Every structure is written in structure tokens, then in C-alpha cells.
Amino acid sequence: DHVCSLPKVPFRGAPCSDAAGSQVPYATIMKQVNSSLSGVLWDEVQKAPFYEYKDSAGQFHQVWFDDPHSISLKAAYVKSRGLRGIGMWNGNSLDYSREAVAKQQTQAMWHALTP
Questions:
Q1: Which of 25, 49, 70, 74 sees the fewest Cβ atoms within 10 Å?
Q2: Chain centre distance of CA 115
Q3: Between 89 and 110, where is the model more confident?
Q4: Is residue 3, in this structure, part of any structural domain at all?
Q5: Residue 9 lies inside a defined structural domain of this protein
Q6: CA angle in degrees (0–180, nearest 5) for 43-51-108
Q7: Distance separating alpha carbons of residues 112 and 50, to the nearest angstrom
Q8: Is residue 10 a part of any domain in this protein?
Q9: Is residue 85 domain-resident?
Q10: CB-based contacts of 47: which residues, under 8 Å, 6+ apart?
Q11: Looking at residue 6, what is its pLDDT?
Q12: Residues above pLDDT 90, as percent of the chain
């Protein structure tokens, strides 16, 4: 049913935070998503992709991320509302290696910020 619960871990007053999970580099996501249990799934409310996998211990995980499509939707929203900008959590989590696929993925992410 694609429902994943996080333990409530206090963090700056928020009941659900990154203290309950961890950040995964975009390069890892792009390599892992194709071999995941679910492949890429899309949440229409969040306008964001996610996927699900089990680790070697059989523990279920759900990974939410942005891709060029979700970033471009958010950037277009900002532009349509006349807002002054958009931010990304960590641009340094993109893959800046010299691999051709990585270069294309990183370029597409940066390009998505300018609707």
C-alpha cells in the first residue's frame, strides 16, 4: 500500500524529521531505483517520486527524492506565483563524476530549476 511510517523523533520541534531517516546521494538513488522492489513510483499529492526496497537484512525502506520532473514542477509553481526563488536541499548530493549518465542526470537536475 506504499505506506511507510517513521518513528517520531524530536528535531527542532518537528514530530517527523531527518533525525528518523537518512539522506541518500542522488547517485545512489539513480543506481538503486532500477533494482528496487517497486521501480519509480509517483505521489500525485507531493508531486514527487519515490521507490521501495528491502535491505540485506530484509528491512523495508522507502526513498523519496526529487528528479528533473518534480523539480521542474516546483520551479514552474514558483515562477507562476511570482515568488522570488527556489532552493534545493543539497546540490552537492548530485553525481559530479565524469560518467556520461551521471553528467546527463546532473545537468538535467540543474536545468529543471529554470522553467
A1: 25
A2: 19
A3: 110
A4: no
A5: no
A6: 80
A7: 18
A8: no
A9: yes
A10: 70, 73, 74
A11: 62
A12: 36
What is d(CA 7, CA 16) in angstroms, rounded to the nearest whole number? 7
List CB contacts of 10: < 8 A, sequence separation 6 or more: 17, 19
Q: In what order do the strands lie in the sheet with 60-64?
A: 41-43, 48-54, 60-64
Q: Scanning the structure block, which residue is given the C-alpha cell 528496487? A: 36
DSSP per-residue codes, 40-60 = -EEETTTTEEEEEEE-TT--E
The domain total for the chain is: 1
In whole angstroms, how far apart are CA 82 and each of 37, 49, 77, 87? 40, 25, 9, 15
The cell for 104 is 546527463
Q: Record the pTM.
A: 0.76
Residue 48, pLDDT above cutoff 90:
yes
Domain range for 39 is 18-113
Identify the three-state secondary structure at position 63.
Answer: strand
Give bridge partners of residue 50 from the DSSP assignment: 41, 64
Give the residue, 5 or 103, on which the prediction is more confident. Answer: 103
Cell of 18: 531527518
